[in-house]
Amino acid sequence: MPSRLLALTSEADDPAEPARFWAALLGREVVEDDGGVLLPGGETQLGLRFVPGRAGRPGTHRMHLHLTSADLEDQRRTVATAVRLGGRHLDVGQRPEEGHVVLADPAGYEFCVIEPGNAYLAGCGPLGELTGAGSRQAGEFWSRALGWPLVWDRGEQTAIQSPDGGTKIAWDTWDNAPAEPHRQRLELLPADSGQQAAIDALISLGATRLAARTDSTAALADPDGTEFRVRT
């Protein structure tokens, strides 16, 4: 049975600060868990989790979030709210004619507020997508690992989505993908068969076991070498 995706976990100097930001921006509850702060996502929205660690560049922008907009006023309102809560505008080379707005949260992680009318993110909910640097092989691995079908597969661009809909997870080859260290990772919960069975299944799909950890999580890497964790 596939593992279940719990959250995108991001390191931060002060985990409570980005947790408050995203909870207010997305209207989520804040739950203190073992060693971090969790913003549960429900059945179809990606959970967000913040843990103590390093914040900011390098290595932070291998993954970023895309928020959706119902209309132009909704997009402007989301951007204004984000800035009021402690976000800031970023210039990443976007062109004036592009409709999305690029921002950074208080921990320095970038995200985009996508313009209305984006057919690709239609029906995905407020947190429409997590996108990152990665290969088609990684997308296929995660499709099997989570039991989520490929909903986009063109060239080196792939995306998966839960059969129930909601947040998409996408991979693309980025020419300027930052190097180590990675400060963001996916965290999984095992199926009823337990953590070790989940680890064995993930390794059979192409994951690699990393060095043992002192906590109860297991660290693995997907076929691209990107770290993720399996919790108990």
Show the helix and strand layout.
Layout: E1 4-12, H1 16-26, E2 31-33, E3 36-39, E4 48-52, E5 63-67, H2 72-84, E6 88-89, E7 101-104, E8 110-113, E9 127-133, H3 136-146, E10 150-154, E11 157-161, E12 168-172, E13 184-189, H4 195-204, E14 208-209, E15 218-221, E16 227-230
Parallel strand pairs: 1-4, 5-8, 9-12, 13-16
Antiparallel strand pairs: 1-13, 2-3, 3-4, 5-9, 6-7, 7-8, 10-11, 11-12, 14-15, 15-16
Question: Could you explain the architecture of this structure?
Answer:
The protein is α+β, with helices and mostly antiparallel strands. It has one domain (4-230): 2,3-Dihydroxybiphenyl 1,2-Dioxygenase, domain 1 (Roll), CATH 3.10.180. Helix content is 19%, strand content 32%. The protein has four helices and 16 strands. The protein has helices spanning 16-26, 72-84, 136-146, 195-204, and strands at residues 4-12, 31-33, 36-39, 48-52, 63-67, 88-89, 101-104, 110-113, 127-133, 150-154, 157-161, 168-172, 184-189, 208-209, 218-221, 227-230. The chain has an eight-stranded mixed sheet, with helices on one face. Strand 15 and strand 16 (227-230) form a beta hairpin. The radius of gyration is 17 Å and the shape is globular. The two termini are 15 Å apart. The mean pLDDT is 90.
